[in-house]
């Protein structure tokens, strides 16, 4: 990949786990387990390619409306993944952040998230943000509430600094797998100037080649941020 145009921050809506499982006559949770394997591969591939931030949509605030057995299975899957994956992430130099509303999570899950973040806090090769119990509208609302409680004026800069992802720059490339062409309440504020890429592959099938295709498409696009092409030529920076 050309270093000059490599996306610094990639965000992914990991969609299609359930349909992947259904096609194979497997329970939906089997698809989510396969999705964890796909995330492991993707995180490793991003780090190897020089991407500095990867943000993934793991569990939305709307996912609580799914069947109880699926939600319970996802929570158990998260606990197992933390125990299994965190040591590997720590060795690979990846710093882990869980982004979302933790208030409605069990004390056990909250403790697990905090421990995972602490175990990787010294890493600086790549940041992996896992958006869990997250919604873009929730993020904007909590940022505004934080400013209001502090008596601060709600300006664009202040709101941006109060966002749950204020520790990283906005995503350059937002990928959604699974064939759907929407962002589903993911990073509504942060994706204002992100390049959008939609893949027909279900998330468990999204491999290194698919990632490279998405990055390649990103590299072929011109990002103007409100300027003209001529202005970009005159001032490449």
TrEMBL record:
Example GO biological process: polyprenol biosynthetic process
Residues that bind Mg(2+): 15, 195
EC number: 2.5.1.-
Residues bound to substrate: 16-20, 28, 32, 60-62, 64, 66, 176, 182-184
Annotated GO MF terms: ditrans,polycis-undecaprenyl-diphosphate synthase [(2E,6E)-farnesyl-diphosphate specific] activity; magnesium ion binding
Keywords recorded for this protein, A-Z: Magnesium, Metal-binding, Transferase
EC class: transferase
Record-linked CDD domains: Cis_IPPS
Cofactor: binding details: Binds 2 magnesium ions per subunit.
Cofactor: Mg(2+)
A GO cellular component annotation in the UniProt record: cytosol
InterPro entries xrefs: UPP_synth-like, UPP_synth-like_CS, UPP_synth-like_sf
Active site: 15, 63 (proton acceptor)
Family label: Belongs to the UPP synthase family.
Function: Catalyzes the condensation of isopentenyl diphosphate (IPP) with allylic pyrophosphates generating different type of terpenoids.
PANTHER family: DEHYDRODOLICHYL DIPHOSPHATE SYNTHASE 2, DEHYDRODOLICHYL DIPHOSPHATE SYNTHASE FAMILY MEMBER
Assembly, per entry: Homodimer.
Protein name (record): Isoprenyl transferase
Origin species: Comamonas koreensis
